[in-house]
Design brief:
Layout lengths: L3 E11 L2 E5 L5 E7 L9 E6 L6 E5 L1 H8 L11 H11 L12 E5 L8 H17 L8 H6 L4 H8 L9 H11 L5 E5 L11 E6 L7 H9 L5 E3 L5 H14 L3 H5 L8 H20 L5 H16 L11 H9 L9 H15 L4 H10 L6 E3 L5 H21 L4 H10 L9 H11 L26
Parallel strand pairs: 3-5, 5-6
Antiparallel strand pairs: 1-2, 1-4, 2-3, 4-6, 7-8, 9-10
């Protein structure tokens, strides 16, 4: 067939070779020579012969640096000749002014985020990912909130892996966006079992750019529309907890090892992720009560799910209670230590079967975790409205009063606003320059889909 330009996603390491998934669904086993090595879950672009059984590629680091600097981008798909010409210009300093077989570059997607809460999680977990050769592919929520959402832009600029071996990734991302940016870690266990130590990560959506601490807490507790959390997380605590736990899920196979399939399997990973995030928060600020609040909200969430639908909410309040009871002893100076401790706690305290799961649900209590907004006294409601106003203003400020971002917040956050607090929400957005809207998925080019808790097929 001869060498041709390909953009592929690294799905697996096989000794000194890597398995690269191509846009047409085929895979090619490649040996990367030289000092540059790709990360599993990252993308590479090169001229190779897909039919060559012993393809060898020397990656050009200048290409990667140029892409990462933001001064150039690679068009995934479209006219291969045009892309090859662009790459030739980009690699002129490495030799002849033409890209030659066996030469390519790395496309990295983990952001250097200006968001302090996401940066906090990446600072801790990023080094471990590099050590394992894992591309985290974390999407920057604030950047995505203001970006163009048409299919080509999402695929080429935000999620190039979708066109190179895992076609469901873009559909999942659009579904999660239509649901208000439901946080997620989407892994592809390409040709591997669930016990793979380093799975390929398609994308991580760490938190919703439109969620307030109040809405995040209500969602966690399974609150009805007329309810609010009595002790909601602050916006920063919610974002840090969510970002750390979603990124930590990328490491779950590495730290949990083999887990039995079944209704409780997903709860083991959720317990691991929650425990890792809780340990990280406690080590960051031992005086914070954020973890206690998370544990209480999780318990309320499992109560609201009920026995029949318990699989829809993570049963992690037990492991979080253990983290709290051992908080004085859980010293974790780095992410590997935190995740090692979290894995041990998850294996011992997460439900292992349906009976364990039912027992956790039966022993959980809703208590006073939620309050009925309409039933509160006037003075309490004023305090609730004021706290919610500050919460909403924090999100609007983070969106930098961007008209497109604010308009999307007005549409997508509608279902996140507790009944009785709509006027506060609308007033904040109006003052920021965006009208209030009812959600309209078709108008935004998005559509709602199935349960966001459903794990992707291997």
């Amino acid at each position: 067939m001869g060498a041709r330009l390909v953009v592929g996603t690294i799905r697996q390491r096989q000794g000194d070779r890597h398995l690269v998934a191509l846009p047409d669904g085929r895979t090619v086993s490649v040996t990367f020579e030289g000092g540059e090595a790709p990360l599993i879950g990252g993308d590479v672009v090169a001229l190779v012969d897909p039919d060559e059984p012993d393809a060898r590629v020397r990656l050009v680091p200048d290409v990667a640096r140029l892409i990462l600097s933001g001064r150039a981008s690679i068009a995934v798909g479209g006219d291969a000749g045009l892309t090859a010409t662009m790459l030739a210009m980009m690699t002129r300093g490495t030799g002849l002014g033409a890209i030659t077989p066996g030469t390519g570059g790395i496309i990295e997607r983990t952001p250097d985020s200006r968001d302090p809460d996401l940066a906090w999680a990446l600072r801790q977990l990023g080094p471990e990912a590099l050590e394992l050769g894992l591309g985290l592919n974390v999407l920057d929520p604030l950047s995505l909130a203001r970006a163009d959402w048409d299919t080509a832009a999402l695929r080429n600029e935000r999620l190039p892996a979708d066109s190179v071996g895992e076609r469901g990734a873009l559909a999942d991302l659009r579904r999660l966006m239509a649901e208000g940016f439901t946080p997620a870690c989407r892994r592809t266990l390409f040709g591997m079992s669930r016990t793979a130590k380093v799975p390929s990560v398609d994308f991580i959506l760490p938190f919703s750019p439109f969620a307030t601490g109040t809405s995040f807490s209500c969602d966690m507790a399974g609150a009805y529309r007329g309810e609010a959390a009595r002790e909601p997380l602050s916006g920063s605590d919610a974002r840090r907890f969510s970002a750390y736990r979603q990124i930590a899920k990328a490491f779950a196979p590495r730290y949990l090892g083999k887990t039995k399939a079944g209704p409780a399997a997903g709860h083991m990973e959720e317990a691991f992720a929650d425990a890792a995030a809780a340990i990280a928060l406690l080590n960051h600020d031992p005086t914070s009560d954020a973890v206690r609040r998370v544990a209480r909200l999780r318990e309320a969430g499992i109560v609201r799910s009920g026995t029949r639908d318990a699989s829809r909410a993570p049963a992690t309040h037990g492991v979080l209670a253990t983290v709290l009871s051992l908080s004085g002893y859980l010293k974790a100076p780095d992410a590997p230590t935190a995740m090692t401790l979290a894995a041990s706690l998850a294996r011992n305290h997460a439900p292992r079967n349906e009976a364990d799961l039912a027992a956790l649900v039966e022993g959980a209590s809703l208590g006073d975790a939620l309050i009925d907004v309409a039933a509160t006294r006037a003075v309490e409601r004023r305090a609730l409205c004021e706290a919610y106003r500050v919460d909403c203003e924090d999100v609007a400020t983070r969106l930098e009063n961007d008209p497109r971002g604010l308009d999307r917040m007005a549409r997508l956050a509608t279902f996140m606003v507790p009944l009785g607090l709509e006027d506060t929400f609308d007033r904040v957005l109006e003052e920021a320059g965006a009208p209030a809207h009812e959600i309209d998925g078709d108008e935004m080019g998005l559509s709602l889909g199935p349960d966001p808790w459903a794990m992707p097929a291997p």
